[in-house]
From TrEMBL:
<keyword id="KW-0479">Metal-binding</keyword>
<dbReference type="GO" id="GO:0016853">
    <property type="term" value="F:isomerase activity"/>
</dbReference>
<dbReference type="InterPro" id="IPR051610">
    <property type="entry name" value="GPI/OXD"/>
</dbReference>
<keyword id="KW-0413">Isomerase</keyword>
<feature type="domain" description="Cupin type-2">
    <location>
        <begin position="69"/>
        <end position="132"/>
    </location>
</feature>
<dbReference type="Pfam" id="PF07883">
    <property type="entry name" value="Cupin_2"/>
</dbReference>
<dbReference type="InterPro" id="IPR014710">
    <property type="entry name" value="RmlC-like_jellyroll"/>
</dbReference>
<protein>
    <submittedName>
        <fullName>Mannose-6-phosphate isomerase, cupin superfamily</fullName>
    </submittedName>
</protein>
<dbReference type="InterPro" id="IPR011051">
    <property type="entry name" value="RmlC_Cupin_sf"/>
</dbReference>
<dbReference type="InterPro" id="IPR013096">
    <property type="entry name" value="Cupin_2"/>
</dbReference>
<dbReference type="GO" id="GO:0046872">
    <property type="term" value="F:metal ion binding"/>
</dbReference>
Length: 321
């Protein structure tokens, strides 16, 4: 594969296209400053304004959220896995019907595999613009977002209406629901009762991994963070591993499914038969299935990289109760 062909599969951090109208809470005070990014796959945006950087199916989606301090993402749920690692800043993740069932604070490099089937939200509690990188299970990312009823009700007061087709309509711009299209129905009490309310003690030990723990575990070989045999045991349709300077190898290898390289710290040189490229923190590189390649740090200093590879498993439920 030529360098130009591979470069087309790299999304540079500085080239990311933000969308400020991606979801129903885009006008709601407290959430109206967030930026969403769809990097690989179709994502779950409800807005036609969302830019898709790389539409090639991988078996999972890669996205990101950027938010200034005190900005939050409203309570929602997914039918497949939602994994985040903190690229920049300090973030609070919270969950439950009203967001008060449990919470955890994540620092840079920490990773969370948020259980499916629960309402979750997150906010930047740092002092500067923060960035979290996301992996969503499945090529269709579970068919969209399920919002807590109060989120839909609050949004209507600020001009945004979500149609039952999963698309947003902004009444402040004169938009209305097309003839015959009904608004997205609110979840009923019976439906809401099916959403678990796990505590922090239920979630944190089994769904959160700390960066510096992973760095120590990756001293000899890459550590599988999320997977059937990972530190966070799960089969969400993909595996996530962390490698650092000590566990990186120049041995060429390939995967039977597409994989993605996402540097956390340091610069990494990725080589393949036909060329090489250097990645920096925040860059995202898609590696085709079957392509022989390697990734090693190209500069001195701290170096770490998250690696995501599809497994071919159904992107099913991950909450074990």
């Amino acid at each position: 594969m030529t360098p130009a062909e591979m470069e087309s599969r790299i999304v540079r951090y500085g080239d990311l296209h933000p969308c400020k109208t991606a979801f129903i809470d885009a006008h709601t005070p407290g959430s109206d400053q967030k930026e969403n990014f769809t990097i690989i796959g179709g994502g779950v945006s409800e807005s036609p304004d969302q830019h898709v950087h790389l539409a090639i199916p991988h078996g999972f989606n890669i996205g990101a959220a950027g938010q200034p301090p005190k900005c939050r993402n409203s309570l929602h749920s997914h039918r497949t896995a939602e994994v985040f690692f903190v690229l920049k800043g300090r973030w609070r993740f919270f969950w439950g019907r009203w967001g008060n069932a449990g919470e955890v604070v994540l620092e840079e490099g920490d990773i969370i595999n948020i259980p499916t089937g629960i309402f979750r939200g997150f906010e930047n509690i740092g002092t500067d613009y923060g960035m979290i990188m996301a992996v969503l299970g499945g090529d269709d990312a579970g068919g969209g977002v399920i919002w807590a009823p109060q989120v839909i009700e609050d949004a209507a007061g600020h001009g945004l209406v979500l149609g039952e087709n999963g698309k947003l309509y902004d009444t402040k711009k004169g938009q209305t629901l097309p003839d015959g299209l009904k608004p997205m129905p609110l979840l009923t009490d019976a439906e809401l009762a099916t959403f678990p309310e796990p505590t922090s003690a239920d979630v944190v030990p089994h769904y959160v991994a700390r960066y510096w723990d992973l760095m120590a575990l990756a001293d000899k070989k890459p550590v599988t963070v999320i997977g059937e045999h990972g530190r966070l045991r799960d089969k969400p349709g993909f595996e996530v591993a962390l490698m650092n300077r000590n566990s990186a190898s120049d041995e060429m290898h390939s995967h039977p499914y597409p994989s993605v390289l996402m540097p956390m710290r340091g610069h990494w040189r990725v080589s393949w038969d036909g060329g090489s490229a250097t990645l920096a923190p925040g860059d995202t590189m898609s590696v085709p299935e079957g392509l022989m390649h390697n990734a090693v740090p190209s500069m001195s200093g701290e170096a770490s990289l998250y690696h995501v590879v599809a497994t071919g498993d159904p992107a099913g439920l991950t909450w074990k109760g």
